[in-house]
Amino acid sequence: MPLLKYEQIADDLRTRIANGEFGTGDLLPSGRDLAEQWGVSRATVVKAYDTLRHDGLVVARQGSGYVVMETPVARPAGGRRAGSTRLSGGAPYRRLGTPDRAVPPGHVAEALGLTQGEEALRRVRLVLLDDGSPQSLVTAWFPASVADAAPRLSAKGPIPEGTTHYVRRETGRFPAEGVDITTVRLATDEEARHLDVERPAAVAVVLHTAFDQRHHALVCEEGVTPAHAFEQIDSYPMG
Fold first, then answer.
1. Exposed/middle/buried for 169, CB within 10 Å: 0-12, 13-18, 19+?
2. Where is this region: Disordered (predicted)?
3. 211 DSSP β-pair partners
4. C-alpha span between 119 and 100 (Å, rounded)
């Protein structure tokens, strides 16, 4: 399905930001300029900027326009229902270490459909609470078919447009289905150190796997959240 005009404008701006044309805090083109460039109404441009704002990529500045967001945001693992955005549930985060290739744990390898001993690309982030303390330790595993086609996943820094949009732009693949499995266990030594909790400490573990249009795994994320920071609320129709 071809992208709507506002989606095309949003994707073009994502690409320009990702390519370094606009850096952190930079002012983005005005609504009038973009409307003239694309031959659309100002309302269409506003919808494009709203899309980027909800993705946590830009922020509106009173009297000046839209600028590239200074503090990147990320979400804990799971809960990526259709219509959700990176800004909803998003929080500041820190990237831990440098992305590397490793053999994932057995349950992650099974979720990704990997063969025994097959490596995947590992990216680790620490999502923070408002006071700067740790909220969730998230390890994302990308199969080689995705990592090889999207080389910036191997870079240390954040991907401003978000990994979902970046992977879609590079590969044409996008999430069509997600599976979340939530369990409870005790934190490992390394998890307790990153989450700043004393052992023994109970943690909730969300294993989130995103599948593309052909039901091939795009990524498997394991989010580990200490008991005091974990809350799950489900709202659903009855009757």
1. middle
2. 77-101
3. 177, 217
4. 10
- The first and second tokens of residue 139, run together, are 């390890």
The Cα 11–Cα 169 span in angstroms is: 9
Here the tokens at position 109 are 């390898």
Task: State the virtual CA torsion across 108, 114, 119, 125 in degrees, nearest 10.
Answer: -30
> Which range has the worst mean pLDDT, 46-55, 65-74, 140-149?
65-74
Torsion-angle region of 14 (φ positive above 0: left; ψ -120 to 50: alpha; else: beta): alpha
Phi-psi region of 25 (alpha: psi -120 to 50; beta: other; left: phi over 0): left
Q: What is the Cα–Cα distance from 61 to 170, expressed in whole angstroms?
A: 31
